[in-house]
User: Which sequence fits this backbone?
């Protein structure tokens, strides 16, 4: 048996997320006294594939086929299922992000496997296999027992650290059977020059407390100084102060950056549902009793329009050192 981890690459390069997933899979493999096998789908060069072994992969299975260069949920699910069967995988680990949320339920049906989604730490027990997961948009947590022979776990972003554990992993090319793919992606138009909110490690977000669209300049300036992206609460995009693609929360984007600035945001539960996976939250609010301070790791009580310029100067000064 084995633990299989599906790693994601972007244009042939792995991001930190994939190494976190491999670190996590390796720990579960240790708990089960078995091997961690990393699966990569798409065109990734051998030196990049080898990086997966630095985080504990005992073997890397690479499936390269031009038909798989763009995500197709059915084709990817079929490939993961074939590799899971070949490697006798009893646990399959996938990221709890947009791709993972599309693949995991399909795979669960295909493999007749129990699915523990948005898991935030290592299983609390392997016999029975019990995972600790977020429920009700992160308002509560539950211990869930997966009783099926094969288990699927989607790992919430930023919930497991990188653990270096270099191994001499073999790299195997696998020729998966890919039937006819029912959809064809004709072309992909990437937004140029703008960091995608879901990719950003640092996000600077503004709420209704910013008062008007005209006051967004300091938020953009702070995001730029920190190489981050900008976001907003829902009322802000409803007002048309910012585009809808920037709205985070229950009805918007769900993000998990390393650092999230909530500026003039009250911290409603619907907003937190989209950002509570952030590693650190910094709140700037003029109301010391605002609920955002309950969720924040660091807080500044003050008028955002006065605090931000000083904050930006301090960031620039620190960067210049
Ligand atoms: C079904 C449903 C789904 C929803 N989905 C979402 C969602 O996905 N995302 C989302 O964001 N909301 C969502 N909402 C709305 C949510 O309930 C809140 O109303 C919203 O998040 C509040 O936005 P806000 O914090 O920007 O504004 P407010 O609640 O008005 O808060 C503004 C904050 O700014 C502070 N402030 C005021 N002036 C200043 C100043 N000068 N300096 C510093 N701070 C200042 C205030 O103290 C206050 O805390 C949803 C609601 C429902 C019912």
Assistant:
């Amino acid at each position: 048996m084995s633990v299989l981890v599906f790693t994601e690459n972007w244009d042939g390069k792995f991001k930190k997320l994939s190494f976190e997933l491999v670190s996590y899979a390796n720990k579960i493999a240790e708990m089960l006294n078995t091997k961690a096998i990393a699966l990569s789908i798409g065109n990734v060069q051998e030196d990049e594939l080898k990086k997966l072994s630095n985080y504990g992969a005992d073997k890397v299975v690479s499936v390269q086929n031009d038909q798989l260069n763009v995500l197709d949920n059915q084709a990817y699910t079929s490939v993961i299922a074939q590799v899971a069967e070949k490697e006798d995988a009893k646990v399959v680990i996938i990221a709890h992000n947009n791709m993972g949320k599309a693949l995991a339920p399909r795979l669960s049906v295909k493999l007749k496997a129990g699915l523990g989604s948005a898991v935030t730490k290592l299983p609390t027990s392997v016999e029975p296999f019990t995972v600790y997961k977020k429920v009700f948009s992160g308002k509560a947590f539950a211990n869930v027992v997966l009783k099926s022979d094969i288990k699927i776990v989607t790992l919430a972003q930023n919930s497991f650290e990188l653990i270096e554990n270099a191994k001499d992993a073999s790299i195997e090319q696998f020729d998966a059977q890919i039937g006819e793919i029912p959809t064809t992606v004709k072309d992909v138009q990437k937004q140029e020059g703008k960091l995608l909110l879901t990719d950003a490690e640092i996000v600077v977000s503004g709420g209704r407390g910013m008062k008007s669209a005209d006051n967004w300049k300091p938020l953009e300036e702070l995001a730029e100084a920190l190489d981050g992206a900008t976001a907003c609460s829902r009322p802000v995009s409803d007002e048309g102060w910012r585009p809808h693609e920037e709205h985070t929360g229950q009805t918007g984007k769900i993000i998990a950056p390393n650092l999230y600035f909530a500026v003039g945001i009250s911290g409603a539960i619907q907003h937190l549902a989209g950002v509570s996976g952030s590693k650190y939250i910094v709140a700037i609010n003029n109301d010391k009793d605002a609920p955002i301070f309950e969720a924040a790791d660091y807080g500044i009580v003050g008028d955002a329009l006065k605090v931000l310029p000083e904050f930006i100067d301090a960031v620039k000064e620190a960067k210049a050192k």
Q: What stands out?
A: Residues 207-209, 233-236, 247, 249-252, 264-266, 268, 270-271, 274, 284-287, 290, 303-305 surround flavin-adenine dinucleotide (CB under 6 Å). The mean pLDDT is 94. The longest strand covers residues 35-41.
